[in-house]
Amino acid sequence: MQTTPSEANTPDYLPSVYKQFLNRYPEVAQAQGALARAVDQRSPFDERTDRLIKLALAIGAEAQGAVRSNVRKALQHGATVDEVRAVALAAITTCGFPTAIAALGWIEDVTTADR
User: Are 54 and 66 contacting, i.e. CB atoms less than 8 angstroms apart?
Assistant: First the structure.
């Protein structure tokens, strides 16, 4: 059985509301994690490409936490900061200028925090 990280041993950058979710609803967190793993296993894409796709979806949904998470994961899997920024720039014509600018701000927050 998969274990769910407790609030005490999760990374500092995770939002407190997510840490509380892990503690309050461990069975839901485990089920969501299992679903995510099943979807990932079916992906024909390499991890880097998969994370850039998920980043694009997160930007389109204006999901700040998902944008930040997928920026970190895309970089961990070999994407460059320029590639991550290019995903946000592509959002200008499909999602709108304000959405793209917000995403660029979230990307900068993540990439400058890691320096």
Answer: yes
For residue 75, the enclosing domain spans: 45-115
pTM, two decimals, is: 0.83
Q: The CATH number of the domain where 71 resides is what?
A: 1.20.1290.10
What is the residue whose two structure tokens read 């796709």? 53
Query: Over the stretch 41-85, which tens digit does the pLDDT of each residue have?
Result: 999 999 999 999 999 999 999 999 999 999 999 999 999 999 999
In this structure, the answer to whether residues 30 and 50 fall within a common structural domain is no
Torsion of CA 16, 52, 41, 73, to 10 degrees: -40
Q: What is the sign of the dihedral through the CA atoms of 33, 36, 40 and 41? A: positive
Q: Are 64 and 17 in contact (CB under 8 A)?
A: no
